[in-house]
């Protein structure tokens, strides 16, 4: 359930990013924006409720790994810490989905800017924001390395021979693309802390708008969007074939 929900939301984010690149300026390219877009459709509340259950399932799965060990990496403390972080992130996303159902969702860009502004208002807040941004950059670059080295394939022990090349291609493109977007998000957080300007911290939506402001920005944004969509399809393949 969790892997399906994660895959679907990345597919939606990719679609929103393409729409943004084509001029839909009112679009918010992040998980909250994807949930809001679903809610605007017929039967949207049912779909968002299903996604909320999926996010909760994913969070509980990752938290169980943090508590009892990660499959294939039982002795790795680092793997358990990563699972703890992922579990907490998806618990927060579950709360966001429930808030969307209640009509009180905020864009993640706004949430991140608010958090950054509060952090910067405290002593030592500048260094804290820079540190958090640096960690996010490292996480993003680790995703790039994981994608390039095909480290994710260790979880696929029973993929049919005819499907395996597609899983490899989607996983590599998806992990590298998502990693680069996450690294850009982290860079924006570092910039916000360094310049004391919380508006520079705009989450994934801010990352795509930054891409659009560059030369050939629309091309870069669409390429990143397609990579996120590839990761979404990869997530659906994980739901089918991953050794959990």
Low-confidence stretches: none
Strand content: under 5%
Our count of domains comes out at 2
Overall mean pLDDT: 87
Oligomer: single chain
Shape: globular
In total, the number of strands is: 0
Order of secondary-structure elements: HHHHHHHHH
**For the terminal residues, how far apart are their CA atoms?**
12 Å
Structural class: mainly alpha
Radius of gyration: 18 Å
Total helix count? 9
What does this structure look like?
The protein is mainly α and 244 residues long. The protein has two domains: 31-106; 108-244, no CATH class. It has nine helices and no strands. The chain is globular, with a radius of gyration of 18 Å. The mean pLDDT is 87.
Walk me through the topology.
Blueprint (H helix, E strand, L loop, with lengths): L1 H20 L9 H9 L4 H25 L8 H25 L6 H13 L4 H25 L14 H32 L7 H10 L4 H25 L3
Helix pairs in contact: 1-2, 1-3, 1-9, 2-3, 2-4, 3-4, 5-6, 5-8, 6-7, 7-8, 7-9, 8-9
Describe what is shown at a glance.
This protein has 244 residues and is an all-alpha fold. It has helices at residues 2-21, 31-39, 44-68, 77-101, 108-120, 125-149, 164-195, 203-212, 217-241.
């Amino acid at each position: 359930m969790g892997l399906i929900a994660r895959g679907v939301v990345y597919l939606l984010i990719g679609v929103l990013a393409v729409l943004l690149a084509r001029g839909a300026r009112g679009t918010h390219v992040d998980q909250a924006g994807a949930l809001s877009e679903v809610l605007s459709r017929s039967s949207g509340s049912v779909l968002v409720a299903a996604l909320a259950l999926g996010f909760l399932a994913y969070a509980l799965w990752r938290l169980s790994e943090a508590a009892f060990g990660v499959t294939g990496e039982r002795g790795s403390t680092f793997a358990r810490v990563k699972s703890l972080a992922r579990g907490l992130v998806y618990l927060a996303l579950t709360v966001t989905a429930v808030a969307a159902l209640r009509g009180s969702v905020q864009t993640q860009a706004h949430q991140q800017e608010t958090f950054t502004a509060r952090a910067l208002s405290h002593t030592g807040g500048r260094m804290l924001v820079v540190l958090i941004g640096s960690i996010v950059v490292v996480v993003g670059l680790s995703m790039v390395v994981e994608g390039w080295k095909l480290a994710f394939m260790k979880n696929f022990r029973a993929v049919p021979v005819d499907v395996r090349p597609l899983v490899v291609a989607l996983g590599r493109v998806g992990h590298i693309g998502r990693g680069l977007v996450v690294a850009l998000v982290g860079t924006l957080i570092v910039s916000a802390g360094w310049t004391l300007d919380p508006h520079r911290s705009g989450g994934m939506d801010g990352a795509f708008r930054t891409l659009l402001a560059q030369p050939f920005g629309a091309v870069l944004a669409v390429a990143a969007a397609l990579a996120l969509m590839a990761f979404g399809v990869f997530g659906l393949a994980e739901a089918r074939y991953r050794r959990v």
